[in-house]
Design a protein that fits this description.
By secondary structure, the chain is of the alpha+beta class. It folds into 2 domains: 335 residues, FAD/NAD(P)-binding domain; 151 residues, Succinate dehydrogenase/fumarate reductase flavoprotein, catalytic domain (Flavocytochrome C3, Chain A, domain 1). 30% of the residues lie in helices and 18% in strands. It has 15 helices and 18 strands. α4 crosses α5. The longest helix is centred in the first third of the chain and has 20 residues. It is elongated.
Length: 494
């Protein structure tokens, strides 16, 4: 007996077909898909449409993965939406822009396949009911970040949930037909192998484990950003903020390395330009952000690392260069330093805050510090006092001479009138740069370059570095997951 779906906006365990994990283990599948999110659902839909028998499992209590919280931004060169608006574009042009915007650091094979598959993927979503915002597509232009040369970037009013609603509707008939079996609250614990080939997975539901066998195993488990221990192990710094999908625990990375696969992308981690967090009990929530884009507010302050040293030109207009300055700093941590005269003269540093609101936070919030001397400020903010004194003195000479060692042009006034202030920013990321290494056909690779037969991967388990490099490329988180999952469902042998 099957229960109807879509009571609300997502498929919970109670809304899915009533098949026990033990009974599901009795079938040998064409596809065993681990991860029922942005990549896994399209793979299941398109495999089932070709007559495949599909098992789709997820550790969460509902399907959808990061689509529950994502901004829903996608892009394609040559979509029907572009043609309808008279925009001429091609996958070749999209691919060229991806490699340009990622500074050539995105995986060329993954980017190429994504660009080729993106138009048909977006056309599928549009034909199935996705409604973009009226002025879309757009280029994705924003202060400090280069954009696409052609409008190809789009999203819907309900963001990721709009895409989730579409793919759930598309999946429903495949579940009703029996071609797709879905197991939620089911965590894969091990790949099953035969003579080095992956032939299924072992997975736990509540207190029982079962083996699920399949011709192809597709890994689509997402990232690791919500696993603080794994994040620390992989990146070497705390995860700091808790803004990602809660089930992004990095299961796929452990499964892959246990099977001999290799990971890549550590050097592509992006901590952004930092945020003010609610506490030092990490992971914490984002509380506020000091305005760091000079296009919005020119800096009156200096930024120093834990050693009290400046590390970047604070009025650098390129967001990427400011972010790459932070990624080399101890703990992805820095302090925004200013004095009383700047506090009174400069525009407020946090959007929407008054000067009075800012003042109320100093020495009452763990990220806001105030002291009468630079040495006392350094002690409160856990900065090296000698380094801070030297940095302030050098900066003040730059203000007087108009010649700054970092090339900073905006030098409004010296930092010399106590009390002194420090606002702590910590670099964090909602995405996972490290992921599973694959070849141009999304087959999982070993360290020696050989391939693990039967095992494929798509989505954020590939690592955001594979699709973004260490920069920002509009739409290149969700688009690769949707397009590559769909491609695997369409092309692997049934």
């Amino acid at each position: 007996m099957k229960r109807r779906l879509f009571l609300g906006s997502s498929m919970s365990a109670a809304m899915l077909p009533n098949m026990s994990p033990a009974r599901a283990a009795e079938t040998t599948y064409d596809f065993v898909i681990v991860g029922a999110g942005t990549a896994g659902i399209p793979a299941a839909i398109f495999a089932a449409r070709r007559g495949a028998k599909v098992l789709l499992m997820d550790a969460a209590p509902e399907i959808g993965g990061t689509l529950h919280i994502a901004n829903g931004q996608i892009s394609a060169g040559g979509s029907s939406l572009q043609r309808a608006k008279g925009i001429s574009d091609t996958p070749d042009a999209h691919y060229a822009d991806i490699m340009m915007l990622s500074r050539g650091k995105a995986d060329a094979a993954v980017a190429r396949l994504t660009a080729d598959e993106a138009p048909a993927t977006i056309d599928w979503l549009l034909s199935a009911g996705l409604v973009p915002l009226p002025d879309h597509p757009v280029t994705g232009d924003s202060p400090g970040r280069p954009a696409y040369k052609t409008p190809r970037y789009l999203w819907a009013e309900q963001q990721g949930k709009a895409i989730l609603a579409v793919v759930e509707r598309e999946l429903a008939p495949e579940i009703d037909s029996g071609r797709v079996t879905v197991l939620v609250n089911t965590r894969a614990t091990k790949f099953l192998t035969t003579q080095g080939a992956v032939t299924g997975v072992r997975a736990r539901t509540q207190d029982a484990e079962h083996d699920y066998h399949g011709r192809h195993v597709l890994l689509a488990t997402g990232g690791y950003a919500m696993n603080p221990a794994l994040f620390q192990n992989l990146i070497g710094q705390p995860t700091y903020a808790s803004g990602s999908y809660p089930h992004g625990q990095g299961d796929g990375l452990a499964l892959t390395t246990d099977a001999g696969g290799v990971l890549r992308g550590r050097e592509l981690h992006r901590p952004g330009s930092g945020s003010i967090l609610t506490s030092e009990n990490f992971p914490a929530k984002v509380y506020a952000r000091f305005i760091t884009a000079p296009q919005t507010r020119m800096p009156w302050e200096i930024w120093v690392n834990n050693a009290g040293a400046r590390f970047v030109r604070e009025d650098e207009p390129d967001t990427y260069l400011r972010e790459r300055g932070l990624v080399t700093q101890d703990g992805f941590r820095y302090a925004i330093i200013f004095d009383e005269a700047i506090s009174q003269a400069a525009p407020p540093g946090i959007a929407g805050w008054t000067r009075e609101k800012m003042e109320q936070h100093f020495n009452t919030h763990p990220m806001f510090h105030k002291a009468d001397t630079l040495d006392d400020l350094a002690a409160k903010a856990r900065l090296d006092a000698g380094g801070l004194r030297a940095s302030v003195a050098a900066y003040n000479k730059s203000v007087a001479s108009g010649d700054d060692a970092f090339g900073r042009a905006h030098l409004p006034r010296a930092i010399s009138v106590g009390p002194y202030y420090a606002v702590i920013h910590l670099g964090h990321s909602a995405t996972s740069s490290i992921g599973v290494k694959v070849d141009s056909q999304l087959r999982v690779a070993r360290a020696d370059g050989t391939l693990i037969s039967g095992l494929y991967a798509a989505g954020e388990v590939l690592g955001s570095g594979a699709t973004l490099g260490d920069a920002f490329v509009p739409g290149m988180m969700l688009t690769p997951a949707l397009a590559l999952g769909r491609w695997l469902g369409r092309t692997l042998a049934v």
